[in-house]
Specification:
Number of helices: 5
Largest sheet: 7 strands, mixed
Distance between the termini: 22 Å
Radius of gyration: 15 Å
Helix content: 25-40%
Amino acid sequence: MSKTEFKIEGEEQTVRLGTLMSDLCVPYAVKNSKSVLIFLEGDLGAGKTTFSRGFIEGCGYKDIVRSPTYTLVEPYDFDNYSIYHFDLYRLLDPEELEYMGIRDYFERTSVCLIEWPDKAHGLLPEADIRIALSYSQNSRTVVIESSVLSQDEIDRIASCFR
């Protein structure tokens, strides 16, 4: 398991972090024809949706990136992969995920960005990547843990903010 911790400041760096992660995760998903699950953890306002916007825009999406707070999932389709942005904050019952066919999303070549994964209560597979964002004075602390990206890859991302 690869792991790194570093600090970022402001919205611009949070968007940049998302873009840098998309540069690694999308090619991995496409090359391996699999779904990459990224769990985004942190309090309200920690930057999970801003990170997701940077990730999706980093893939070349030019329209408005919408928060899936009320729809639970917002799909973004590209030529040979998809990105599914989940926000489970308002999930009332984990069974709702079964009704919407959540397992189907994980069987396609895709990247699934999942905010508030703890709300799913065991219905999600293990994360390939966990990104925890937390406040620390005037910056955010970022912890990235990955079973699919190498230590060198995540250290290179961290070095962009040091």
